[in-house]
Specification:
This protein is an alpha/beta fold. It contains 13 helices and 10 strands. The protein has helices at 2-5, 14-21, 74-87, 106-115, 133-137, 151-157, 163-174, 195-204, 228-239, 252-261, 271-274, 306-311, 329-339, and strands at 30-33, 91-94, 119-124, 141-145, 180-187, 209-214, 247-250, 275-278, 283-285, 297-300. Helix 3 links the parallel strand 1 and strand 2 (91-94).
Length: 349
């Protein structure tokens, strides 16, 4: 499981690293594609909707609605996927934004990506998965956001009454042949005391891992003041549940460190070379942290094809130091080291 979640993956793409060393843009390894900005839940920690979220600038619609009914048209989604596959993109992650499975044609879009030979991943709240074994079995991975260990907390923080349905859908997904299925848990002040409960539940449902992370907002690391130690203790207890078939993937500490660091202390953002983020508004952004912001906007596919944008856009010169925070520091530091034309003492492996 550690290998699946490792930050060392850029080292497997040395031909791309060689291009970056020559200061050339590369074909991304994967897209992050938000086919739906509409969501059927209302999580209080959503970076796209909450007060103080990083991605609220361009997310509301013209009327100011914070949960816009906005989808990438299926024809446009297929065009983007075709162009990406032809360019040499290897994979696509369908995520939010909104809830991907709310898109009326989400199954056909993902199936089309799979038919092109693209590896596919899906981040979902898990409310609309039953009976979808065909497309789900073709996924490389599937992560279901739970963010609670008990029904009351789940229904409070997500403004929904679908706990039982989601629990059964997690059980259903975990039994599928094909994707690596995991549960996502964003630790907040309202739910951190249920980290262990969530891990116990996930393990009982047959899920091989729970991924624990932190909330990114303009409050930064200060949000966790007074509770960070307790959260680390709960994660430590949860890790005692690990065995050969179940892991607790702890991203919390690294993400809090990213929040404490705030703006990067390096200028080159290699991550946004490997990953291209396409919003449900058809704008292209440097990454999910800068999504739906004017600063992060680097393209608009509403008036052009993905191929036209990609082959006519210089991305290499983006300065990472202009970002308010970065949750990809570990990946960027590795990429920067690999791109360095003259790193010291490399002979002494």
């Amino acid at each position: 499981m550690a290998d699946v979640m490792t930050s060392f993956k850029p080292a497997w793409h040395l031909e791309r690293v060689a291009q970056l060393r020559r200061k050339r843009d590369i074909v991304p390894t994967h897209l992050q594609m938000i086919i739906s900005d509409l969501c059927n839940q209302d999580c209080h920690f959503c970076a796209y909707r909450m007060e103080g979220g990083f991605s609220t600038e361009q997310f509301p619609d013209e009327s100011g609605k914070k949960n816009p009914t906005r989808f990438i048209p299926v024809e446009k989604a297929i065009e983007i996927l075709n162009d990406a596959a032809n360019a040499g993109v290897l994979a696509v992650e369908f995520t939010g934004g909104g809830e991907p499975t709310v898109h009326p044609q989400w199954e056909s879009i993902i199936a089309h990506a799979q038919g092109l030979g693209l590896r596919t991943g899906l981040v979902t709240n898990g409310t609309r998965l039953e009976g979808k074994a065909g497309v789900l079995s073709g996924l490389t991975w599937l992560r279901i956001s739970l963010d609670a260990g008990q029904q009351l907390t789940y229904e409070t923080i997500r403004a929904t009454r679908l706990w039982n349905k989601v629990v059964e859908n997690i059980r259903y997904a975990a039994a599928l042949d094909g994707p690596l299925v995991g549960v996502g848990f964003v630790a907040t002040r309202e739910n951190f005391h249920e980290i262990v409960d969530a891990c116990v539940l996930a393990k009982s449902l047959g899920v091989p891992y729970v991924r624990i992370s932190a909330m990114f907002s303009h409050q930064g690391a200060e949000y966790y003041s007074g509770v960070e130690g307790a959260i680390r203790d709960y994660i430590s207890t949860a890790k005692s549940l690990e065995d050969s078939s179940f892991k607790v993937v702890d991203f919390f500490g690294a993400r809090v460190h990213d929040l404490e660091m705030a703006a990067p202390d390096y200028d080159f953002c290699g991550y946004q070379q490997f990953v291209v983020y396409i919003g449900g508004n058809l704008k292209v952004y440097t990454c999910c942290t800068n999504a739906y912001t004017r600063k992060g906007e680097i393209g608009d596919l509403s008036t052009q094809r993905f191929s036209d944008w990609f082959y006519n856009t210089r991305r290499y010169d983006f300065d990472a130091r202009s970002c308010h925070h970065c949750q990809f520091n570990d990946k960027n530091k590795l990429i920067n080291y690999l791109v360095d034309p003259n790193p010291p003492h490399v002979e002494f492996v």
